Amino acid sequence: MSNLETFSKANLSRDLFAISLDSSLKTPLQAQLLEALRGLISMSPDLVGARLPASRTLASELSISRTTVQAVYDQMISEGYLVTRQGSGTYVASEITHLSQPHPIPRDADPTTHAWRPFQTGLPDQTLLPHRQWARHLERAWRSPTPELLARPDPLGWHPLRAAISDHLAAWRHLSCDPGQVVITSGAREAFEVVFHGLLGAGKRVAIEDPCWPKLHTILTDTGNSAHPVRIDQDGLDVPRLPIGAHATIVTPSRHYPTGVSLPLPRRVALLDWARQTGAMVIEDDYDSEFRYRGQPLPSLSGLDGLNNTIYLGSFSKLVSPALRIGYLVVPKHMLQNTRTYLDHVGARASLIPQPALATFMNSGEFAMHLRRMRRVYARRQNHLLSALAPVSNLLKLQPDSSGMHLCVELRTALSNRMTDVEISKRADERGLRISALSEQCVLPRKIQGLLLGYAAFEEDIISNAADRLATIIQPPC
Amino acid sequence: MSNLETFSKANLSRDLFAISLDSSLKTPLQAQLLEALRGLISMSPDLVGARLPASRTLASELSISRTTVQAVYDQMISEGYLVTRQGSGTYVASEITHLSQPHPIPRDADPTTHAWRPFQTGLPDQTLLPHRQWARHLERAWRSPTPELLARPDPLGWHPLRAAISDHLAAWRHLSCDPGQVVITSGAREAFEVVFHGLLGAGKRVAIEDPCWPKLHTILTDTGNSAHPVRIDQDGLDVPRLPIGAHATIVTPSRHYPTGVSLPLPRRVALLDWARQTGAMVIEDDYDSEFRYRGQPLPSLSGLDGLNNTIYLGSFSKLVSPALRIGYLVVPKHMLQNTRTYLDHVGARASLIPQPALATFMNSGEFAMHLRRMRRVYARRQNHLLSALAPVSNLLKLQPDSSGMHLCVELRTALSNRMTDVEISKRADERGLRISALSEQCVLPRKIQGLLLGYAAFEEDIISNAADRLATIIQPPC
Fold this sequence. Notes:
2 copies of one chain form a homodimer. The first copy, chain A, is an alpha/beta fold. Chain A has helices at about 1-15, 30-45, 55-60, 65-80, 130-145, 145-150, 160-170, 190-200, 215-220, 265-280, 300-305, 335-345, 355-365, 365-390, 415, 420-430, 460-475, and strands at about 80-85, 90, 180-185, 205-210, 225-230, 250, 280-285, 310-315, 325-330, 395, 405-410, 435, 450-455.
């Protein structure tokens, strides 16, 4: 208590000494000081009970007469802002706090924030992040920031983070690139904006996989391009199906979203040949391939290409936390100048605050350790989900997936004859689950009926419970 | 040293125990473990010298035979990855660190980062931020984050930050609003995108001040709107000059950018009347009015309006640091639903990482204290700049400015007869200064000749030196 009081008192004095008064103004000094002191007190509820400096001290600090200060103190005592305590000075009154709050503000809860619901996809288990270590990286980066951190920021991002990402890609994705080719963004949407506004331009015909991440359609529309969906088969995108005259294609070769199919090497080679021959760009969206549980992952498509006709997109939303809002793209060297010109024009959007912390988190090895730990946890959760759903294996095509954070489960005929995936999704929603319908991620006819079941973010007992609820929804009435 | 070794050793064991092996694969377990261990070591330079777990322990953890583990250890010893020390076990060799770097990466310096140059405008003195306090807020927010911080984020921003901003606006800008009306953005550009993409739509005729912030033109073009510059006079924007049929106007009433003129009350009232009568929106860009050194600031225009026909834009780039990339807008209640729909569609871009720290920084009173301290420092620097330029007062119209972070100094005829402001800006650039020419911020004819001299971010001796350099540039040859 006495510490608190000293602290507040020190603040108040310092603030008072910082007041700017101007004798050349028409407003008398006394009125200026009165206004300033009133403002100070009504602005800072934490000043309640703080002692004011002696009038002599304040007068000397502000180079005004002591009479002026005393007159202001007196007036504010009469107004109830200040109180005197016999023999011990003048204090900020406790009754005036309500003046500082023109309207009551609820602080504790955000009415629009909601918990994540089971089977939500694309979500890591954020509770398992090594928060103490992460917070320490943040604190160390900013407690006495290097001059570089306070210098003119590069709109392409914090260089040591770009170097750490380049290392990570070499080690995990067999993608060799210079740190200078890595561009930090505020997420996938901005990455696509850089690609389409800054590098390829509008009016492009862009082939996309069908099914695909539904937002891709709106991103392409919003950037003034047209989307040309190409139905994938059991091996993913097939080059002969690409539309003639496409300027670019967006693919998820490591793990097709949402089905989880991995594009085999011959198709990758064919895709890169197609790009070279037609001059089209291949945009590789590599959103969670670090989470591979079995088998050797294929190198990234961009690594195979050597980043000539490919642009690589990555993100930390699934590897670390969506709170970061940090994604990145890796661009071919011949596109670097245009990338810089565009980002100089529109300005960076990614906050610099997490970037140095993320760089040291990666360089310390804690990031790789976290990924490996999550890989183990997520593998266990996938197994658990498969076991929990085993009782309804007559209705759902259950198969282990060698990677990823969700299962894409097709409906068997016994189920799809009775219900659509959209109906199941709707009923699941009513029961507190968040299940995306596979058919809603397709735009071409013959939509596949299936469910996307995110398991990464949920503990085993939640998964069991959610699987039970799903079973209740899809089981035939007795 | 021994602590470090224990730590690394602990990491290595933990990582090894997390390896996923799959006996159903064609690749033998031994080859899988070899590949995994090689990857682990070449990925983490900090593992050098770490001790490997005993082969018996690892075999038990991975449920494989001890012979397999020993065979892998032996092969890696022969490859030079590992070394044995007599009687004390197996260690990661120190010679292999170079293996982890497929290409040398410069880590220390970002070749494209530059120091800020004197007279740069719009820049706070970031070295004076209470970094330790700020870093502590970051650390406290994230060391064991509340469930709300890990829940589904509101695309409108972290609610306690929105509440803190609402408090700040009530106290400093006489703007009363609900926290729910405050929308966090990644900066001014995104704020304008929300306004034009999400609320007003494209194809709008937007009146802007002339001169103005040059990026406004490109933002309006990029969002599909047309800019209609209106020449300001000595009192700022005058309503009778607004173009007929304008759908919106963007103004800087507290402190016109770049001239520093404050819009008088009668003109504010007239502007709000115009908006009410025509149904147009007034967008108030209130970018640095917290830094007022003399006189009473007028309440914000949006406060006067009660946020009916006004949208308010603010930013922390100048008040705290551009590294945050945190700005905000305050929207009328009747526009909240559209704001949410738009942000649900495009997603949030502002990082969540700085938001809880900024909220507690503001609620603790440290933010207000920082602003008051900066106000005092910047006032002193402005005075210092005026004194330092006094020798060339026959060439420049020097006048104290009651607020802001830069002086807008018009050229006297004796100077403008010899040189344009653009020439001065160019020569200043060659001498390491960053002086914007006022005429380049105008698009209408009869451009005003003047210089923008940012002083906030620079210490007195740098200001003196820069003023001397400027004097050398503009003084007539002897």
